[in-house]
């Protein structure tokens, strides 16, 4: 979940804009429309040079949700959200609801100080600041332990860049008096939490997620668990919806963090229909059997498990005889039907009844007893779980969390995340910290920033005549990305105007790049002035700029 500025391609759905004789297409990436764009392989590597050529595959393969669907829930969404630069999310709804209802929430992101901060980092800076301005507790961290373990940077090199990241973050609007800034190596609470999280993870799991093997250094693996602690750190003073703005290459971290948040809980809460365990597709079959109880039960108020088993088998056999399928989805697999009916037959005359189940995951004996005592109404107590009748899932979740907190647990909520598209490098392809011409550093002299934009690859046609006739290939233009991601700011009308003039053939590359270059120079000049002002603020903060770790 840390951002070192590497990444691949990406634009907002408003498109790119460029065109004209000096804007010949020299290998700009495939168009990325609002639906995700060109089809290609997806590779997610938190420390590599990940590119995502098809954002749609992230929805299909990794379960990332389309951000557009949650957009109406967000009060005054950021322009990166409106333009589709932020394209996906995991479980952002609790954050949006907290924001809308003026309830506590948090936002956190980390930065690996491997070089100077640049315009790619500004995306994350802006997202973090926006959430802070909307009332969220904001956390910005320097991932120095990760930089040392995963990138092999010396502590001197890390110290050299730490101040620069913090200055840019503050200069762009982060309020350090109302937020939290820290270094991993100096935060004992994070390190202690990482140790506890490490008791719920193992080498095989980390190996499967990150391709670690027998040659992987232990400190490298430790840096992963430290990042998990970073992600959950805002909830140490109490559970709250928390969002982590990241690029899609960081999604493996988010999936693991959400899993670990659950594993640390005292209780798991599920729905059930009988005393035996069931999950996923099994539970769906039981739910359907319960709903159809009028069709088979002698007493529909108390359908028996054995009766439900007979009904399931009969329905499946009838459908098969007619060449059809009883349930029309993956739950009809013969092995699954057999597994569920075996469980139902073994339960015999036990009533099939909906209930909420509290599973004992990590609860102390006192906490488990307190939970039993706190459940009102009918309940059944088993060795490893408690079944409560007449209680809904939401109330059960709240009760489980309250008992956990009263008895010293964390009560973590699964952290949420939002995903932004990668910026294309100015030279086409990937923007890379190691290729100065591909990116603009926030420390670049304004004239140097101007020159880089003027030299950038565009999405224009081979000649000005073709540009006027056919229009520019705006959706392939790194220069328009600068407008959409940065130079237009909150002015959607301006961004749209540039785009439409490009694709309509009115805007040629020369004038477009000149305008962008001038705006970039102005931005850098203003930003660097604000960085100077931020130095005084940074000096007054309780954050170590020079590590005392041995060199």
Kindly list the characteristics that best describe this protein.
alpha/beta; four-stranded antiparallel β-sheet; 20 helices; EC 6.1.1.2
Outline the structure in words.
The chain has 551 residues and is α/β, with parallel strands linked by helices. It has a domain at 268-406. The protein is built from 20 helices and twelve strands. It has helices at 56-62, 79-82, 93-100, 119-133, 144-150, 155-171, 188-198, 203-210, 218-232, 251-263, 281-291, 305-321, 334-347, 365-374, 393-406, 446-454, 464-470, 478-487, 492-503, 509-539; strands spanning 2-3, 65-66, 86-90, 106-111, 137-142, 180-183, 242-246, 267-272, 355-360, 379-381, 385-388, 416-420. Strands 1, 2, 3, 4, 5, 6, 7 and 12 form an eight-stranded mixed β-sheet that branches. Strands 8-9-11-10 form a four-stranded antiparallel β-sheet, with helices on one face. β4 (106-111), α4 and β5 (137-142) form a beta-alpha-beta unit. The chain is globular and about 85 Å long. Residues 5-50 have low confidence and may be disordered.
């Amino acid at each position: 979940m840390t951002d070192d500025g590497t990444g691949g391609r990406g634009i907002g759905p408003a498109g790119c804009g460029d065109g004209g004789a000096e804007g010949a297409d020299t290998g700009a990436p495939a168009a990325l429309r609002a639906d995700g764009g060109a089809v290609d392989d997806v590779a997610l590597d938190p420390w590599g040079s990940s590119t995502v050529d098809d954002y749609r595959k992230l929805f299909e393969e990794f379960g990332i949700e389309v951000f557009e669907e949650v957009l109406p829930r967000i009060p005054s969404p950021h322009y990166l959200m409106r333009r589709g630069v932020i394209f996906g999310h995991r479980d952002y709804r609790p954050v949006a609801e907290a924001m809308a209802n003026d309830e506590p929430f948090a936002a956190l992101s980390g930065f690996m100080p491997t070089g100077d901060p640049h315009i790619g980092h500004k995306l994350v800076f802006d997202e973090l600041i926006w959430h802070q301005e909307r009332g969220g507790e904001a956390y910005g961290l320097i991932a120095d332990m990760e930089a040392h373990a995963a990138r092999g940077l010396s502590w001197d090199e890390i110290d050299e860049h730490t101040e620069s990241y913090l200055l840019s973050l503050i200069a762009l609007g982060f309020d350090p008096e109302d937020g939290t800034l820290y270094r991993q190596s100096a935060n004992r609470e994070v390190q202690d939490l990482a140790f506890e999280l490490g008791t719920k993870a193992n080498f095989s799991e980390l190996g499967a997620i990150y391709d670690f093997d027998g040659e992987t250094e232990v400190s490298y693996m430790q840096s992963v668990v430290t990042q998990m602690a970073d992600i959950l750190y805002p909830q140490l003073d109490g559970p709250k919806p928390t969002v982590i703005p990241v690029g899609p290459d960081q999604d493996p971290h988010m999936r693991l963090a959400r899993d670990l948040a659950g594993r640390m809980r005292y209780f798991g809460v599920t729905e059930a229909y009988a005393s035996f365990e069931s999950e996923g597709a099994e539970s769906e079959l039981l739910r359907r059997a319960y709903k159809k109880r009028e069709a088979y039960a002698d007493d529909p108020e108390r359908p028996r498990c054995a009766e439900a088993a007979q009904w399931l088998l009969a329905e499946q056999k009838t459908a098969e005889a007619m060449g059809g399928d009883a349930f029309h989805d993956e739950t009809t697999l013969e092995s699954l039907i057999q597994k569920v009916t075996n469980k139902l037959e073994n339960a015999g005359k036990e009533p099939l009844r909906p209930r909420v189940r509290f599973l004992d995951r990590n609860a102390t004996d006192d906490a488990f007893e307190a939970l039993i005592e706190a459940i009102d109404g009918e309940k059944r107590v088993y060795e490893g779980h408690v079944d409560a009748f007449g209680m809904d899932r939401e109330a059960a979740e709240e009760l489980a969390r309250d008992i956990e907190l009263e008895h010293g647990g964390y009560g973590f909520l699964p952290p949420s995340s939002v995903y932004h598209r990668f910026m294309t490098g100015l030279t086409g392809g990937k923007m890379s910290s190691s290729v100065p011409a591909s990116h603009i550093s926030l420390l670049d002299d304004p004239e140097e920033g101007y020159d880089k934009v003027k030299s950038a690859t565009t999405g224009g046609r081979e000649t000005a005549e073709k540009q006027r006739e056919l229009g520019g290939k705006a959706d392939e233009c790194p220069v328009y990305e600068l407008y959409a991601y940065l130079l237009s700011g909150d002015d959607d009308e301006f961004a749209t105007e540039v785009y439409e003039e490009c694709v309509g053939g009115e805007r040629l590359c020369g004038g477009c790049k000149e305008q962008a270059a001038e705006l970039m120079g102005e931005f850098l000049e203003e930003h660097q002035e604000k960085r100077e002002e931020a130095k005084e603020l940074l000096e007054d903060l309780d954050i170590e700029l020079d590590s005392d770790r041995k060199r």
